[in-house]
Amino acid sequence: MGRLVCIVGVLLALASSENLEKATLILYREREFLGNAHEIRINDKLVASLPANAYLEIQVTSGKTNVESYIYRGSKRVFSLQTEAGQVYYIKAYEEVDFWDRYLVMQSVGAETATKEMKKCRKVQKVKQPD
Amino acid sequence: MKQTCLLIGALLIVLAPSFAQTDTLNQTIPVFKKSMYLRSTAFLYSLNLSSIWLSNMQQVLKTKDLASESRFTGSIPFEAGVRFQDWAFSTNVALPVSLGDAFNPKMVTISLFAEHAVFKSRNFRLNVGAGASLYEYSFILVQDEPNRQVGFQDLFSTSFLTTPVISNKGGAFDVTVSLSNREKKPVSVGNCFRIGYRRGFTKYQWKSQSFDLLGAPKDQLDMVYFQYLISLSKNY
Known about the structure:
Chain A is an alpha+beta fold. Chain A is built from two helices and nine strands. A five-stranded mixed sheet of chain A has the order 8-7-1-4-9. In chain A, strand 7 (88-97) and strand 8 form a beta hairpin. Chain B is mainly beta. Chain B has helices at residues 2-19, 55-63, and strands spanning 23-25, 39-53, 72-84, 87-97, 106-120, 124-139, 166-181, 187-200, 204-208, 218-219, 222-235. In chain B, strands 2-3-4-5-6-7-8-11 form an eight-stranded antiparallel β-barrel. Chain B is elongated, with a radius of gyration of 22 Å. Chains A and B meet through strand 6, strand 7 and strand 8 of A and helix 1, strand 1 and strand 8 of B.
């Protein structure tokens, strides 16, 4: 019994230490009129498609992180940030459309603003975690 | 020439986004100010597809088994206008293009529009509008005679199964709904989709340019049209 508790304890410790090395990115878009879904890549790995009025929760290894968006017949945009383990980063995105181009504009926002703006957003369930 | 213009227009639409591919790392985020570009002037090139009902004449042609294809027309409208805040005013001249119809129907219009933005988002503007138009719808009935032989010397003194140009000319009012891109740069190119309904002020008599046509029916225009427009605007 004591051995089992010990193994479980070690596993839990390993799991928690892994989580401590990770940072959390929350990427969200508010409601947009005729908004298109954009592909999101984290450090060149496709993680999900982000439509309007939705958000993604992604666990990333701490360090330099590139968040890239792309849409067919639009252009690719990259937003990069330095992440630290255990921290949560909120990134707000919105779509820009004109005759020549369409793309996502991304910017960091504070937790308070993000929580308020994300209230009606639905969580994207199909997320392929990058690591 | 018109077909070439159409082809170039279509190619531009398809290829345009490929020229805009960029990979920007942490580019300065453009901030869209709502107060920007309240006034703008615009020139629009477009393609117009219409469906026309002039029921009395179409009924006459139908009884003679001649009309089934005179309803649809195409045209290239040119439009110039000015926008001030949520109001846009424009004048539009639409020149016909042939859709390869046996009746060769043509609709020429000169219109004045006033449109008001009823809904705006960051990227789009939804407008409703009203307008007034002068129109002339005309066609020629040509019946082919594939088995007939005509000498070249007799060409200009022989009668053929072809009518002169018959036309219906008058004034009409328009109601429109359009969806357009919002301008974000001092000089902007944008898309605009417009659906409109046009109705004659009253019934106008069918006429021929060649002679005084007696006993011709009268018709009140009913027309539905779709326009895809590309606008080039200077914004202040």
